[in-house]
Design goal:
Elements: E1 5-7, H1 17-31, H2 39-59, H3 66-84, H4 97-122, H5 129-150, H6 153-167, H7 182-190, H8 199-220, H9 223-234, H10 241-257, H11 260-278, H12 282-294, H13 306-314, H14 318-346, E2 351-353, H15 360-367, H16 372-382, H17 387-396, H18 409-425
Helix pairs in contact: 1-11, 2-3, 2-8, 2-18, 3-4, 3-8, 3-18, 4-5, 5-6, 5-7, 8-13, 8-17, 8-18, 9-10, 9-15, 10-11, 10-12, 10-14, 11-12, 13-14, 16-17
């Protein structure tokens, strides 16, 4: 193992255009191809996204009928999805006439539901013609929205289940059943809280959106930069220091965000040059960064949005899910640390002294308040507050930036916009 000590004098490495293009492609694979508007269209999308975030922050405290909350949530998501995500790559960065038509149709399904009031839900067993039109339309809109954001696999699987409902009587045993007619399917999927507006939308409209807002607050408040700086300062100049830094930073960034791609891209721009200095090849560095980012999917408190669905489907508390997820998360990152130690000895990594601008203690004294929101969420849940109230409280309070100042109105606008567009992609 080489004992030569190399010093990194570049606190922020420049990222090439090719690397940025690859990072953008990775994000598009995860979240779908999306438009980048300018002018009044960009302002409109931003305004709708901000209104959506403010509405969900309001509903975290106010009492809103679940039927209306879920319908409005779906309407917001469909409107943003059809404007932000193009029908095909060749139509990027422009809103076509069919995009506007689909976006308005998505809002119309919610307006029709809310305007119908209690009578709408009372006739779920015997829907009328207009109910069927809007119900079938909503199903088709959701299938198209899924195709735009996730690709063809999920819409095809969903369509197979819908076709099974119609053609089940013609299948041999044991797959045969009596069959379902369109009015019965529409009544169940559109006019009750057991179909489209079921558990998944309930969790998305009450919990996932709030955690997304919270993650955006962390990003724009400087918490992400602090977590990276904290990891750099915590790890010394040993040959394993670079790998340890990536592992710790992935854990701190991935837990609150819940996004593996976002964690990998954010950390990769800073850590990739450092890993190259130590002696990692491009493949080894990419594998370590990807493995660290992948841990975000299983890391508390978000678990890639799965934690809320687990709690809702199993009828257990969210805090229990977090506690049960802690052990596999720690084992996962501990295994990464072991691999870092083994690779350093196997490949003869160089010893690198990280050029730290701040000591660990000074960083913690100045910016350690970024840890308080994570601690506050756990404490308030132990005191009996709901996860929604905890997240709304931590997201809506003024938050200082990494420079020690309060967030500006512009940054708050970006936070609310970013959180809603991220929710639409999920």
């Amino acid at each position: 193992m080489s004992e030569e000590i190399e010093r990194l004098h570049q606190p922020a490495a420049e990222v090439s255009e090719e690397a940025l293009k690859r990072a953008e492609e990775m994000i598009e694979q995860e979240e779908g191809v999306h438009n980048k508007f300018t002018g009044w269209l960009a302002a409109l999308v931003a305004l709708v996204a901000v209104v959506m975030s403010l509405f969900h922050l309001y509903t975290a405290y106010a009492i809103v009928r679940p039927e209306y909350l879920r319908a409005i949530h779906v309407a917001f998501v469909l409107f943003l999805t059809f404007l932000v995500f193009p029908v095909a790559r060749r139509f990027r960065h422009r809103a076509m006439a069919w995009d506007w038509a689909l976006a308005v149709a998505g809002v119309a399904t919610a307006v029709y539901l809310i305007a119908g009031g209690d009578e709408f839900f009372d006739r779920s067993i015997t829907p009328n013609d207009w109910d069927i039109v809007f119900g079938v339309g909503l199903v088709l809109l959701i299938l198209e929205a899924m195709r735009r954001t996730t690709g063809w696999v999920l819409p095809i699987v969903t369509s197979c289940f819908l076709l099974y409902a119609f053609f089940g009587p013609y299948l041999p045993s044991p797959w045969t059943h009596k069959g379902y007619e369109i009015p019965r399917l529409v009544g169940h999927m559109y006019m009750t809280l057991e179909g489209i507006y079921g558990t998944a939308i309930a969790v998305s409209s009450s919990l996932i959106i709030l955690f997304t807002i919270y993650g955006a607050f962390l990003q724009y408040s400087g918490a992400g930069k602090f977590y990276i700086d904290f990891s750099f300062s915590a790890m010394g100049g040993k040959p394993t220091g670079a790998g340890r830094t990536v592992t710790l930073a992935s854990f701190l960034l991935g837990g609150p965000s819940g996004s593996g791609v976002a964690t990998t891209v954010t950390l990769g721009a800073v850590a990739a040059p450092m890993l190259a200095k130590v002696g990692y090849s491009k493949e080894e560095a990419g594998g370590l960064l990807a493995a660290g980012g992948l841990g975000a999917i299983i890391s508390p408190p978000v678990l890639g949005a799965a934690a809320f669905l687990i709690a809702e489907f199993l009828k257990i508390s969210y805090l229990d899910v977090i506690l049960m997820a802690t052990i596999p998360t720690l084992l996962y990152y501990f295994a990464l640390l072991l691999m870092v130690e083994l690779d350093a000895r196997k490949f003869g990594m160089k010893q690198v002294v990280l050029d730290k601008t701040e000591t660990l203690w000074n960083l913690t004294k100045k910016f350690g308040f970024h840890f308080l929101s994570l601690v506050a969420i756990i404490v308030f849940m132990l005191l009996g507050f709901s996860p929604a109230a905890c997240r709304a409280g931590c997201s809506s309070r003024p938050r200082r930036s990494s420079a020690g100042c309060r967030s500006s109105p512009g940054s708050r606008w970006c936070i609310l916009k970013r959180s809603s567009t991220t929710s639409a992609s999920r």
